[in-house]
Write a sequence for this structure.
């Protein structure tokens, strides 16, 4: 799982670089940049889900029926704060949209998620001791 954490940190660094180098307008004009944004967000969210579900299993916190429930179980177990969990669960919802309704998500909406990358960093800080 440490490898997952490193991949998450690497993907976050790339998304931060994307945010620093390109404006929303540039992303809207360039399909490759838009793809990088979509894939980068998806990867960060999926790794977060994978780590969450791993921790739930490892520490026998319950039997989740959804990805979002893995995060809820981490809160109940004291691994995450409720505030962080709510933010991460919204990202799980975004992940589902990215997977199932790719074309309907506007780039502007995705670009706003670049302002929430700290939530992933808070996640890594919270779970690192348990991996």
């Amino acid at each position: 799982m440490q490898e997952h954490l490193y991949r998450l940190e690497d993907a976050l660094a790339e998304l931060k670089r994307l945010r620093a180098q390109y404006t929303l307008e540039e992303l809207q004009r360039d399909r490759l940049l838009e793809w990088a944004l979509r894939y980068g967000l998806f990867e960060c969210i999926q790794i977060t889900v994978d780590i969450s579900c791993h921790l739930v299993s490892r520490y026998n916190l319950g039997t989740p029926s959804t990805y979002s429930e893995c995060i809820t179980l981490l809160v109940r177990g004291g691994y995450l704060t409720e505030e962080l969990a709510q933010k991460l669960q919204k990202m799980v919802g975004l992940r589902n949209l990215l997977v199932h309704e790719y074309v309907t998500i506007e780039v502007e909406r995705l670009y706003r998620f670049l302002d929430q990358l700290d939530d992933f960093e808070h996640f890594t800080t919270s779970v690192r001791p348990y991996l």
In short: The chain has one domain: 2-130. The first helix runs from residue 2 to 21. The two ends are 6 Å apart (CA to CA). The CA atoms of residues 78 and 91 lie 20 Å apart.
